[in-house]
């Protein structure tokens, strides 16, 4: 019921009558029923008769998150408060007026659906007449398209593989094949024959390693007469550390792993790579995936003393987050809500295959996920903050403390002795008073400081820092927004202006990604705003000719509303020098007779000028010892820090639904709990909202991996199927809801899910089961008749050919060229130049040096960064989860493969490799090239064509051509 009127025409008589009715009406109970209303068997049942009317026609537009007309029909309170319902009196109830037709005119409400029938209107009237009883337990909600009977929310089916006749040879061995063939038979389709061994080893090696097999591996498999040769191949591939690198990349896609924070600043996170290594290690070790999931959600709780477990909880903070900050309380709350929303979405989609985030503002319109379910997760994750923390074993902490603590104690003792020497000087009151009398002038001011002196003729003027306001001993950087030098005479002018020929120089802060934004000239351009940042402690002005001057002024915050609260340190002590040749300098003005800018500078001057030689000597010795101790402290390797976030054990309570998703509009109270839609199939949990933060997350993790939770194993085995065949049994791997695609083989999906549980949630046995099937081992040959029925081969009448992913293409070029570096783990390499000044800029590298010749999974992937070759071949932006890789075909792909310096370098490296391994014989070189690139030997025609090409254009040109062929980047 849309757009209920905000104003209602009521005559004063009607208002008086309504007031009289209310005054004389019998008292209303909390349910809205008149206290003395009769109870009969034919009384209207609100939940069964009236609530469905409101659900179908009204709450879409009138609910706590979308109160059109400032009224909600989710509960009775709003209707009573807004006078839409007068219990016991339908004729005085404005709701009845709105839904009742007058003459031939349509009723005012509902506006976005069919009018209520006469029978429905009469039900509403009778309900009001009988006292508008509305049980407190009933909340009217807009029904979702799917309810708890949705297929993915049902328990895993216990089904036996179909028993079929007419199965092709070998298709009766694996239950997988029985399920697949049953669907093929329904469509009168027939599977392809087995792929030949060269195709099969190339397919399997890319599938499990993301790399091409070596020619030697291919020949060994092709010539292996053992009936179990293929099974042995799979065992070898699964045992290799290359497996974890390939399938780790798949999982990192799913969990939106990225090594920058995204948003407008998008700065690099250098402490998140241990999570990537943890994923690879865990997969190589075949860690049970239910344990893996629990570590993702609560690794820091499960075993806080084991770094290899704690690091798993970096999953929670591996996504983008806004770290700009906001002083506005409302905006800060919204940013925080967005941050937790990101964690909720990642969790729901990765593990449950549910778009939980759609319930942030209202009940999910398609899936049976209530807004209260969403905010139960919000309460679960409310204690998580982004950031780093020490992740170390107790032994590491003890050893580190044993080395560090004695040095820290010694540092404290030396610091105390040094302070005692300084304090002794500060107690000399009379001497201090005499010294302070020599400081008659006001202190330097950010808004403008001026020095006048007898006229002096010079070519060079230099402003030199002798200390900053924040640190008297720091003479390095300072900022100036304008530096003015005035000529002497009757008509003085600012001779420091660049427009008058003056040149400014000096070490300055250069922001290379925004050239020209800052620089020495800004101090002499006559404009305020942008500043010169002197990083070397001085600024020099050169005149075009000797010039007589007698006044200098400079500022660092001229015109600012709060000049004392700038973001940068400013000059507090200085001297001004002149020179004729730029080499020999003479001081013409200093700040030494000005009052100090603050007490730190005052004490620094007193100590500097009143300290005795003996005290200075003692201080020098103490400083020498202190510096030595600090060098020893710095030499101790710090405990490892990892970007796993921080935890607030007592997050702000209580928790509420945010109406419309706004933290400023709090609705009903919520606490950490499981999803209501799964209560009938999975044992639910519900915690008090004061439950410890750790308990919230472990309870969620235990519920997600509970043996009775059907979503988690279904989603996981579907991801395996997706990466093996290119498309999952459910084609939307992270959406098993109403808007997702229904499974092509639902019985097979449940059988695989049960197999996963029976194998202890280990993935390697599942890989082997899938890859041992004939459905996987069949050829990819095209059948026109079958394609007319099942063009995408979703029913698997053939193995669907796949293009290599961006990482596989790059890794293949490195491997084929023989330059791949196989060291694992550690900080990632970069294929971009990283530039930062508050915000980050990523400039793709044109040249990729040997230090980048590692597997692409070890690249430091930053959000919104462009990487030549990999970006062109659809490497996803890790700002979001990428459960499916896009596959585009663009001219830029061909141009990059043909012309980028990286691919040219690989062509050259391949040519060198062919010469080393095949000698100077062109036939052997070409044969070896085909074996490396395609896992086969060339045909006679290919050999003749390639030989003629080499003779005309050279071996390098042939290698460049071979690396640009479709056969190289497609697996069939």
TrEMBL record:
InterPro entries: Cyt_c-like_dom_sf (IPR036909), Cyt_c_Planctomycete-type (IPR011429), DUF1549 (IPR011444), DUF1553 (IPR022655), FA58C (IPR000421), Galactose-bd-like_sf (IPR008979). PROSITE patterns: FA58C_3 (PS50022). Residues 538-622 form the F5/8 type C domain. It comes from the Bacteria. The keyword Transcription does not apply. Residues 1-25 form the signal peptide. Pfam families: PSCyt1 (PF07635), PSCyt2 (PF07583), PSD1 (PF07587). Keywords: Signal. GO terms for molecular function: electron transfer activity; heme binding. The keyword Signal applies. PANTHER family: CYCLOINULO-OLIGOSACCHARIDE FRUCTANOTRANSFERASE-RELATED (PTHR35889), F-BOX DOMAIN-CONTAINING PROTEIN (PTHR35889:SF3). This is F5/8 type C domain protein. It comes from Kolteria novifilia.
